């Protein structure tokens, strides 16, 4: 996971935990002494459902952050999530791309590991030729070099 992706996840996690705290504070303590009307009960159910969804997303992000910490830096000999890869496409153009996780917000220099090009690059080494599908048809590229951008800003 890139440093930017980690920061984004940590920021989202802080926001989710703050929202969860606010929602949890609005739920009744479960005593049931004041049943309220059906609208009150429906509102209570909606807030409980929101709390469940927030808990699920918090657990998902916690898991991703733990997995990234355990995985360590990517292998610099083979393409992996977090690698920077310079590729030469069939038309002769060169591009330096970062391979990001599926949850990372892609930009012009990021290719996600679950995209057609990303899947083709995973595990490849400098000098390897990869084939992948594009909306216009089959594509190919040569891995010219690769490195690690973990910790880069």
TrEMBL record:
<dbReference type="InterPro" id="IPR001437">
    <property type="entry name" value="Tscrpt_elong_fac_GreA/B_C"/>
</dbReference>
<feature type="region of interest" description="Disordered">
    <location>
        <begin position="24"/>
        <end position="44"/>
    </location>
</feature>
<dbReference type="InterPro" id="IPR036953">
    <property type="entry name" value="GreA/GreB_C_sf"/>
</dbReference>
<dbReference type="InterPro" id="IPR023459">
    <property type="entry name" value="Tscrpt_elong_fac_GreA/B_fam"/>
</dbReference>
<feature type="compositionally biased region" description="Basic and acidic residues">
    <location>
        <begin position="35"/>
        <end position="44"/>
    </location>
</feature>
<keyword id="KW-0251">Elongation factor</keyword>
<feature type="region of interest" description="Disordered">
    <location>
        <begin position="129"/>
        <end position="153"/>
    </location>
</feature>
<keyword id="KW-0648">Protein biosynthesis</keyword>
<protein>
    <submittedName>
        <fullName>GreA/GreB family elongation factor</fullName>
    </submittedName>
</protein>
<feature type="domain" description="Transcription elongation factor GreA/GreB C-terminal">
    <location>
        <begin position="76"/>
        <end position="138"/>
    </location>
</feature>
<dbReference type="Pfam" id="PF01272">
    <property type="entry name" value="GreA_GreB"/>
</dbReference>
<dbReference type="GO" id="GO:0003746">
    <property type="term" value="F:translation elongation factor activity"/>
</dbReference>
